[in-house]
Design goal:
mainly alpha; two-stranded antiparallel sheet; 2% strand; binds N-hydroxyamidocarboxymethyldethia coenzyme *A; Citrate_synthase_AS
């Protein structure tokens, strides 16, 4: 058994005891109230989910297992000479709550290498799809097609005890996570680089192997590690996390669950916003004959977007009320590695121009940039100009968080999700209208 799985096996009984105590002794304690606006307003703010893997404070942003992004980047072990930590170490942290040491890291890296091989039928299936299919459709379809590899399904069918569910869900999740960089890079090289996939390098870690298979040189492996870590988790109420959790609650295995979550990530209000940001910026550059706009030109473009009834992509958030620290982490990387990039300069100008306009516009509760406002510019700088691919990379990262959550869901015996609906007439009666 790997050190990571061993650690999980040690931690699960203590968590189960805490959950059992809460459920048995405090099950009727009131946590929140439901308001009519939340029935139609996407249940915004309703406290009815639980996760110990990350917590999103509206003012401070995300903490992974209690650690801020700068703390994670500083404390997690790094490959020799690298600027960014091992993605494998972040997986260890999300799953166990502990910062791994050198021997734990080596163990996870080696375990992932053993799980990497992608069955050939996945490539056959991807190749059979029309090449202009959106890469998120390809990515999600590949995850779904891998479902025949599930270890959860045969073990469940053989009569698995509920206490053991987490074990095959762990195996499926690790097998799946280890394969995602190769599937993503394969889609990229097949679709955009003249069908020239690059075989993985068995000696490289998760982030470096992805950069290698993308065919992009140093420091792209650093941005890959940063990108996957930053996008991994954002509490459990966002669409990709909640969908994965919901589908998994029916005991659909991790392949079904993650594929569903990725389909939610593919929406323009969620993960697809990173592609929308670059498309929007390109429209602007095109309009101005590829020169940097003046502040006035930029302000006009932002107002034109708003006045035509569209949202400003990369700005606003359902929970956050400050600049997203995932934006800031990417901005710091850009300031160090690509300070003179013209699109970075434009993204920086937008950071000055958009918030006051959104405040004046008066609708968005959060006028500040989110993660998606910055992810595209760095990718563009290193040659990944095919912006419809950006959400796939978000998906590789997001899989880390949602699958970690799924393992813990099964470990603590989370029930099938089934909230209750009311009719509009019932709500009118409750409101005293009828
Ligand atoms: N531009 C223009 N209007 C905006 C806006 C923006 N960036 N953000 C919010 N608003 C508008 C909303 O459309 C809404 O208008 P209506 O009342 O007419 O419906 C109003 O302001 C109130 O919305 P809100 O309460 O501030 O925001 P929500 O919680 O409803 O939605 C969103 C949060 C992220 C979906 C929203 O801010 C948005 O559409 N942003 C642009 C798209 C985007 O960047 N999405 C990525 C978010 C991060 C993420 O999940 N990444 O994966």
């Amino acid at each position: 058994m790997s050190k990571l799985k061993q650690k999980l096996a040690e931690k699960i009984p203590g968590y189960r005891d805490r959950v059992t105590k809460l459920m048995k002794e405090y099950g009727d304690t009131v946590v929140d109230q439901v308001h009519i606006r939340q029935f139609y307003g996407g249940m915004r703010g309703l406290k009815c989910l639980t996760t110990d893997i990350s917590y999103l404070d509206p003012e401070e942003g995300i903490r992974f297992r209690g650690y801020t992004i700068p703390e994670c980047l500083e404390k997690l072990p790094k490959p020799k000479g690298a600027e960014m930590p091992y993605v494998e170490g972040h997986i260890y942290l999300l799953l166990t709550g502990d910062i791994p040491g050198e021997s734990e890291i080596k163990d996870v890296v080696e375990d992932f290498k053993k799980r990497r091989r992608v069955p050939h039928y996945i490539y056959d299936m991807l190749r059979a799809m029309p090449r202009d299919t959106h890469p998120m459709t390809m990515f999600s379809a590949a995850v779904l097609a891998l479902q025949r590899e599930s270890e959860f399904v045969p073990r469940y069918n053989a009569g698995l005890s509920k206490m053991e569910y987490w074990d095959p869900v762990y195996e499926d999740s690790m097998n799946l996570l280890a394969k995602l960089p190769e599937i993503a890079a394969y889609i990229y090289r097949m679709k955009y680089k003249g069908d020239t996939p690059i075989a993985p390098d068995p000696d490289l870690d998760f982030g470096a192997n992805f950069a290698y298979m993308m065919g992009i040189d140093h420091p792209y492996e650093e941005i890959s590690r940063l990108y996957f870590i930053l996008h991994s988790d954002h509490e459990s109420g966002n669409v990709s996390a909640h969908t994965t959790h919901l589908v998994g609650s029916a005991l659909s295995d991790p392949y079904y669950s993650l594929s569903a979550g990725l389909n939610g990530l593919a929406g323009p209000l969620h993960g697809l916003a990173n592609q929308e940001v670059l498309r929007w910026i390109q429209q602007l550059m095109h309009k101005l004959g590829n020169k940097l706009p003046t502040k006035e030109e930029l302000e006009k473009f932002v107002w034109d977007t708003l006045n035509s009834g569209q949202v400003i992509p990369g700005y606003g958030h359902a929970v956050l009320r400050k600049t997203d620290p995932r934006y800031t982490a990417q901005r710091e990387f850009a300031l160090k590695h690509l300070p003179d990039d013209p699109i970075f300069k434009l993204v920086s100008m937008l950071y000055e121009v958009v918030p006051p306009i959104l405040q004046k516009h008066g609708k968005a509760k959060n006028p500040w940039p989110n993660v998606d406002a910055h992810s595209g510019v760095i990718q563009w700088h290193y040659g990944v100009t095919e912006y419809d691919f950006y959400t796939v990379m978000f998906g590789v990262g997001r899989a880390i968080g949602v699958l970690s959550n799924l393992i813990w869901d099964r470990a603590v015996g989370q029930a099938i999700e089934r909230p209750k609906s009311l009719t509009t007439e019932m709500l009118e009666k409750i409101a005293g209208i009828k």
